[in-house]
Amino acid sequence: MTITTISSRQFNQRASEAKRATNNGPVFITDRGRPAHVLMTFEDYQRLTKQRRNIADALAMPDIAGIEFDPPRAAIEIRPADLS
After folding, report:
1. What is the pTM of this model?
2. In angstroms, what CA-CA distances link 12 with 1, 19, 28, 51?
3. What's the pLDDT tens digit per position in 6-21?
4. Would you say 6 and 28 are in contact if contact means Cβ atoms under 8 Å apart?
5. Cα gap 71→65, rounded to integer Å
6. Are 61 and 69 in contact (CB under 8 A)?
7. Is the N end or the C end of the chain the one with fewer CB atoms within 10 Å?
8. What's the rounded Cα separation, in Å, for the pair 3 and 27?
């Protein structure tokens, strides 16, 4: 994998070259010498984002039907308030 770094000005002038460079790895686009953006292929983006689960997916638990769970019933008793 090759990382290419170009300035914002170069990117504006040679966007097609920057897009072609993403076939070899990410392209860092700098503003005033500091990395500001990353250009990558859509396939690379998908690979990166599929590895992470968001909280909604984690809590959805799509395979929950296969889990046996029979919790004991909670016994809640009413007690008089202790006012001492």
Report:
1. 0.58
2. 24, 12, 13, 32
3. 999 999 999 999 999 9
4. yes
5. 15
6. no
7. C
8. 6
- In total, the chain counts a number of residues equal to 84
Residue pLDDT, tens place only, 21-76: 999 999 999 999 999 999 999 989 888 887 666 677 667 766 667 778 788 888 88
Task: Give pLDDT, residue 54.
Answer: 67
Close Cβ partners of 18 (under 8 Å, ≥ 6 residues apart)? 4, 6, 10, 11, 27, 29, 39
User: ∠ CA(7), CA(11), CA(14), 5° rounding?
Assistant: 130
Sign of CA dihedral 36, 40, 44, 45: positive
Structure tokens at 67: 């889990």
Residue 37 in tokens: 């953006």
